[in-house]
Amino acid sequence: MKYTYLLINLFTIIVPFLFSFHPKLNFYKTWRAFFPAVTISGLLFILWDVYFTGLGVWGFNPDYLVGIYISNLPLEEILFFFCIPYACVFTYHCLDLFINRAIGDKTEAILTPVLILIFLIAAAFNYDKIYPLVTFIILPVSMILTRYLFKQRWISKFYVIYAVLLFPFLIVNGLLTGTGLKAPVVWYNEQEIIGLRIMTIPVEDVFYGMALILINLQIYLYLKRPAKKISG
Length: 232
What we know:
Layout: H1 4-19, H2 31-55, E1 58-60, E2 69-70, E3 73-74, H3 75-96, H4 105-125, H5 130-149, H6 155-176, E4 186-188, E5 197-198, E6 201-202, H7 204-224
Antiparallel strand pairs: 1-4, 2-3, 5-6
Helix pairs in contact: 1-3, 2-3, 2-7, 3-6, 4-5, 5-7, 6-7
Pathway: Carotenoid biosynthesis
Keywords: Carotenoid biosynthesis, Isomerase, Membrane, Transmembrane, Transmembrane helix
Membrane topology: Multi-pass membrane protein
C-alpha cells in the first residue's frame, strides 16, 4: 500500500513519456521549453501546497506513502506537479497537431469573460472557505493574463483539450481522493471546501487542475515560440 501514490504518478506519466519519442509527435524536442515551465509553475503550486498542508486544508494518508518528506509534503506530492503537467502538456501537444480550430472566435470572446465572472462570483460566495476562495481567484487571474494581457488566442483550444483531459483527471484524482480505496490518499478538511464532490473528488479540484495546466501551458508555449530573427 505504501507505493500507491508513487504508482499513480508513474502510471500517469509512463505512456506520455514513451510516446514523447514517436516520430510523428516528437514531444521530446520541446523539453527545453517544458522543463523550465514545469519548474516555475511547480514551484508556485508547491508553495501553495506547503501552506495549505500547514493550515490543515488537506493532508496525506501515510499508509499510501513511501515516507520521504520535503518540508511537510511527501515526495509523491512533489512528483505530482511534474507528472500531471507532463501528461497534460503532452496531450495538448498531440491534440494541437490535429485541431485547427477549437471554438469560434466569437464564442470564445463571450465564453472567456463569462467564465472569469463566474469564477470571481464563486470566490466571493466562498470567502470563508480558503480552498475555493484561492482557487477561484488564481484561475480567473491566470485567464485574464493569458487572454487579455498576453493576448493568447490558443485559450480556445485549451478549453476543448482540458475538457478531454477531464476523463483521465477523474480517474487519477478519483484514486487520490479514495475511489476504489479503503481510505483517501489525499484527505480534505470539510470546513475549507464547498462540499460538492464528483464521486470522491472535491469540485474545487477540477478548477485547481485547470489553473495548474493553464499556467504550465502559458509558460511552455511562451518559451516554445520561434525565436525572432534579427535583421542585419
